[in-house]
Design a protein that fits this description.
With about 375 residues, this protein is mainly β. About 10% of the residues lie in helices and about 60% in strands. The protein contains four helices and 18 strands.
């Protein structure tokens, strides 16, 4: 409880926006035309992982068995578990979010793959190193309200988040292959709560946690009986801070040799830099989804465009009824990834993968929800 006591005490002043939403929502509900109260609880899991570098499982296990793609530069995973309570148009929820993003280039990916394989034939002569790693674990409280008009529905959610763990690492530079060894100089900087390149331990000399405020918006427009447009933008506003976060900065020079006790020349990378603390301010890129639905006699046709961690996805889909269930199939037209979903009035299950073997998958999606 000690860990979470600080969370609620420190963040109490930032909960004011949530209280405003709750107050406004309650007033709007109270003043609305008389209606029957509708209450609902919902448990939901959303998980989406994508990589154009190597299969997702190999990156997670840090065991690359497949050569990186020619355009290798991006990988991410986004996972969120939520429990929500809805009464009429007002919703309150608690959420847990885990995410990781890797930005790099083809040369860096090929060099890392070659080092894992220990195969000299895979080595490249020169490499421009560029690696950016961002990970975050956070817990959030959110309050939202949906305003229903005749054919239009508008939604707003405000959230307060505790940052449980955060890491931002950047490694850049150039190396060249000389006599079977890579020679060059790299620059490194990183902010972290725990894990870091230099394995700096936490001795109470820097802070691990912080907090932040986010906002989500949504809109649903029923243009006519057969045509519908739905838009959601999560983190349209997202500002976070961690004061006195762990911080390291320095340079790594690989042009450093020594003679071992057997008289052989070996290479020992030399690092020079410093470790201290730094106030960390950061935001989050918006995550958007636009869906166009057309209802025909045979079913519903959909086209969806989404953007997550600066990566675009376009899908076409088809939905039809089977007994008491809705079946939704969709297809990512660029990455050739099929997805299928099944739902009834209480639960929803969706799964998508671009390869039959999950160990080779570079796109992986799982959505699960149940309401009562």
């Amino acid at each position: 409880m000690t860990k979470y006591r600080g969370f609620f005490m420190k963040g109490s002043f930032m909960l004011k926006p949530l209280m405003v939403v709750i107050g406004l929502s309650s007033a709007m509900v109270a003043n609305a035309t008389e209606q029957h109260d509708v209450e609902q609880f919902k448990l939901k899991l959303d998980s989406f992982s994508y990589s154009n570098i190597a299969p997702i499982s190999q990156i997670i296990d840090d065991n690359w068995r497949k050569k990186p793609n020619n355009n290798a530069n991006n990988a991410f995973t986004h996972n969120e578990l939520s429990f929500s309570y809805t009464k009429n148009n007002l919703q309150l929820s608690i959420r847990k979010r885990l995410s990781a993003v890797v930005k790099t280039n083809t040369a860096t990916s090929e060099l890392y793959y070659a080092s894992q394989q220990e195969d000299p034939t895979l080595l490249i002569d020169d490499a421009n190193i560029n690696l950016q790693l961002t990970t975050q674990e956070s817990t959030g409280l959110m309050a939202g309200y949906r305003l229903d008009l005749s054919d239009l529905s508008l939604g707003l959610e405000l959230g307060y988040w505790r940052i449980d763990d955060r890491r931002d690492s950047i490694l850049t530079g150039n190396v060249s292959l000389i006599s079977g060894q890579y020679i060059g100089q790299l620059s490194m900087s990183e902010l972290y709560s725990d894990n870091n390149f230099l394995k700096r331990p936490h001795l109470g000399d820097f802070k691990r946690t912080g907090d932040g405020i986010t906002a989500n918006v949504s809109a649903n427009w029923q243009i006519n009986p057969t045509l519908n447009i739905n838009l959601t933008v999560d983190d349209i506003y997202a500002k976070y801070k961690i004061n006195e976060h762990g911080y390291s900065e320095g340079s790594l020079n690989t042009d450093n040799t020594l003679i071992n006790d057997k008289g052989f020349e070996t290479f020992l990378p030399f690092y020079s830099g410093f470790e201290k603390t730094k106030d960390h301010r950061f935001d989050s890129d918006p995550k958007s989804k636009l869906t166009l639905s057309y209802l025909s006699e045979l079913g519903t046709l959909t086209m969806q465009a989404s953007r997550l961690y600066n990566t675009n996805f376009i899908e076409i889909g088809y939905q039809w009824s089977l007994n008491n269930y809705q079946i939704i199939t969709s297809f990512d037209v660029e990455r050739l990834t099929p997805s299928i979903a099944i739902r009834d009035q209480d639960w929803h299950l969706a799964f998508g993968m671009d390869k039959l073997d999950i160990d080779d998958a570079q796109t992986l999606r799982l959505n699960l929800s149940y309401r009562w």
